[in-house]
Amino acid sequence: MSDKNFDVVVIGGGPAGYPAALRAAQLGLSAACIDDWKNEEGQRLFGGTCLNVGCIPSKALLESSELYHRAHTEFAVHGIHVGGLGLDVEAMQARKRGIVKQLTTGIEAMFKAGGVTGFKGRGKLLAGNRVEVTTDAGVEVLTAQHVVLATGSVPVELSIAKFDGRRIVDSTDALAFTDVPKRLGLIGAGVIGLELGSVWRRLGSEVVILEALETFLPMADQQVAKEALRHLKKQGLDIRLGAKVTGASLEGNAVNVRYEMGGAAQELVVDVLIVAVGRRPVTTGLFGADVKVPVDQRGFIEVDEQCRTTVPNVWAVGDVVRGPMLAHKGMEEGVMVAELIAGHAAQVNYQTVPAIIYTAPEIAWVGKTEEEVKASGRPYKVGTFPFAANGRAKGMQQTAGLVKLIADQEHDDVLGVHIVGPLAGELIGEAVLAMEFSASAEDIQRTIHAHPTLSEALHEASLAADKRAIHGINR
Ligand code: FAD
Ligand code: NAD
């Protein structure tokens, strides 16, 4: 094949797109990946939102800010006294940028090693599975047996609080603050609101989060959500539920935010306002005139369970299609599509996509919440175990939270696991694997968990779900 004809052309080089191209190449197909990301210095980098301004930089800052916070508040309990504790936000940001650079340039290295042709520019799907690529060098047209659309998402902007990049900002700007804002407001107590609110709160900001809904984290198990809310509030995050923002305006060096809560008009004055009310799919300029890839009312490309669009050999994966906007969900879809194109059997198990919120304590879950199971009418049992009774958590001085396991009352299959606590994001992996293997609560009960580890809390929760196993007697 000439270098303009490929088996697979992927448009979008984020966590959904680049693994699709790499997996296709691993399976012996010729693959190209086109991505138009440009950072603030004008460098074109693969990796999409996740690596450049999402998962990776946010976790870098969460780690740094948590260490600073713990040095302030917890070290003394361990008998460690650090005098003159200082904060260098620029150094923290430089570390973050270094990690982003290593990982984004790492993708290019993987492309080179794996035989994927990378194009740094804009892709447009033309009729007949041709793809127009516009790079700094000009315009060219590629032909492809298959095209995978992986163009991702961008932050939603509110017409009543338009971004200005300085005082009213999105998550991208909020990851790059060079100073700690004294008064920080956030609209939206979703995943970004909680993670970025935590970063800047730990570094010293007074943080107020305005959330339109009355329920905190409605997608999470409510026992776990309530426990998380209690701990986050204790850390000083002022989370106001049922707060409907009606407007925001710049006043001198401040932002005046107007909202309604409990039937009364309220006002909040902050130095910076982060708007984190969700993200929307990106398909602007993606389709040539004769291309008819269906897009739903909210802008998502319509696909079936295996990410096929209705146009033959055109697929779509990641944030630009239905389902949770999560990097690992997109990655699995990208890999699945590459395998299907290569003629293999492949599927994504959408029932076991884990969700993690990287606050402290972390919040993580997989499967159904107790509210969902109850609503389904299926008889179920619940086991919980608090980290306060876990030896490792005590040693870590991180005893907040609990593990909750929900299993079918009759058949014993694990229906959901919900964790709020230390390293919940790591612990949930065991529950995901268990559910992927259709484990029962008894399977987890009979699995040896090393002592002392945090994972024992899941073991104990599985035992608590079924008192027979604890006492060794039949009920
Ligand atoms: P994207 O990552 O958005 O990548 C799409 C790429 O396509 C971009 O580079 C874009 O520039 C490019 N593109 C778009 N149109 C074109 C075109 N026409 N031609 C060429 N290129 C194009 N998820 C998690 O799972 N865990 C986390 O911890 C997490 N943290 C997050 C923190 C923040 C602050 C944010 C904002 C998001 C976070 N997410 C997290 C969500 C995660 O980043 C997304 O789910 C993920 O990046 C989606 O991957 P994607 O490949 O579908 O899209
Ligand atoms: P989100 O959907 O998680 O939360 C948005 C919140 O804003 C919701 O609680 C919503 O009720 C609220 N809201 C919406 N409009 C509002 C208004 N006008 N006034 C007040 N509140 C309002 O969205 P997000 O936090 O922006 O994150 C976007 C996406 O990025 C999510 O889909 C998330 O999965 C992904 N993400 C994931 C992670 C992670 O996996 N750890 C981290 C960050 C982002």
Name a few traits of the molecule.
475 residues; alpha/beta; 5-stranded mixed barrel; 5-stranded parallel beta sheet; 14 helices; 21 strands; 32% helix; 27% strand; globular; disordered C terminus; binds flavin-adenine dinucleotide; binds nicotinamide-adenine-dinucleotide
Shape: globular
DSSP summary: helix tally: 14
Strand order of the largest sheet: 1-2-3-4-5
Secondary structure category: alpha/beta
- Please tally the β strands and state the result: 21
Oligomer: single chain
Distance between the termini: 68 Å
Bound molecules: flavin-adenine dinucleotide, nicotinamide-adenine-dinucleotide
Beta-strand level of the residues, as a percent range? Answer: 25-35%
- Gyration radius, rounded: 24 Å
Q: What percent of residues adopt helix (DSSP H or I)?
A: 25-40%
Low-confidence regions: 469-475
Structure in a nutshell:
By secondary structure, this protein is α/β, with parallel strands linked by helices.
How would you describe what is shown here?
The chain has 475 residues and is an alpha/beta fold. The protein is 32% helix and 27% strand. The protein contains 14 helices and 21 strands. A five-stranded mixed beta barrel has the order 1-2-3-4-5. The C terminus is likely disordered. It binds flavin-adenine dinucleotide and nicotinamide-adenine-dinucleotide. The site of nicotinamide-adenine-dinucleotide has 24 residues, from α6, β9 and β17.
